[in-house]
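User: I need a structural model of Acetate kinase from Aestuariirhabdus litorea for a docking pre-check later this week. Nothing fancy, just the predicted structure tokens so I can convert them on my end. Input:
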Amino acid sequence: MTSPNVLIFNCGSSSLKFALIDPISGVEVISGLAERLGEELASIRYSMGGMKQRLELPGADHQEACAQILGLLTEAGLKQQIGAIGHRVVHGGERFRESTLIDAQVMDTIRDCQRLAPLHNPANLIGIEVAQQHFPSLQHVAVFDTAFHQSMPAEAYLYAIPYALYQQHAVRRYGFHGTSYRYVSQRALELLELPTDHSLLCAHLGNGSSAAAIRSGNSVDTTMGLTPLEGLVMGTRSGNVDPNLYDFLASECGYSLQQTSRMLNKESGLLGLSGLSNDMRTLEQAEAEGNERARLAIDIYVFTLARQLAGLATSLPHLDALVFTGGIGENSSRIREATCRRLSILGIDIDLERNVANGAQSQGRISADNNTPAVLVINTNEELMIARDTHHLVAQQVADTEPSPSRHH
Ligand code: ADP
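Assistant: Understood. Predicted structure tokens for Acetate kinase:
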């Protein structure tokens, strides 16, 4: 690799997030988002060296957005700085336990996983194909949301349904947010100087929310399942409900499978409970103004989170730390305090002042220095993790293909 900088592509069905990152220092040279692709209002916003810009691209698709991004990078003299491209891929099935260089076989497997993530993998594939066309001479790497959780034991990943459904159709818990968990758990180890044999609970609380138990660097349990719908209450997703709801709503209300799926994924969670918003900031404000349904939505969010964290703890021999991350985990002292109050059974006890300051002056620590388990707020950085994996894999490949130095006897 002539330059170490990595271009990150995170492709959604109508968006393309990108960033050029130095994988060693973590410095973002440029980052941006192309959104509403395929619509009249398609646009790209990006920031570079503190300058923010916006380009309107009416009707642009992923292909055009990628060409524009390449144009931007060329114009800014950054094209030569791109050493490799790292792609976020949501589902890697059981095949990918870690990030991988992309070749035709890897593409086939990602394509194969589309049935497990029909909303995400097709967009991720478009991102890779478009980027390969524009950057044919560079190495491309896939970093999977599911890979980190492949270390879970069978008791954590199997559902108690006929085993043949696992054998024949790969029905099992996969879990998501793995790149974020890898990042925040490594940061927690550094900050707390924990030994190899450590035990953590991590909660990634954003629009999608999940939690995981991590033992000695490996995921041993997580709340999301076959799809990201399972587990915690989220912005618009219900999290756990009785699976018989499908049946009940079909006979009681004439709902089709699609209607119930849509309701559970898009109209439930904080939005469904509050009838107001899927956004935690809006709900906290409404609650402060006396809105009862906002309060109820927040209470149920916290109840579910605490209950699931306590359940995850049963996969750990002891607890070194609880880590909060994601938009809500990093910013909402309200949610952290209420959740930690419910977890006193795990010895969790936070310092209220540190919590209100989001751990800003205490290296993310919001528990007292001498209290175990520690409670931490760590800002996640999935892009940096993708950049590091990409850099590492490409450097390793270069080392593997270089002839070994001749030995002199
Ligand atoms: P995504 O999962 O889409 O990446 P984020 O991780 O950015 O989402 O999290 C978005 C959530 O974080 C929203 O519910 C938002 O309201 C919440 N959030 C962001 N800042 C705050 C804050 N200061 N207080 C409470 N919630 C916040």
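Before docking, keep this in mind: The chain has a mean pLDDT of 94.
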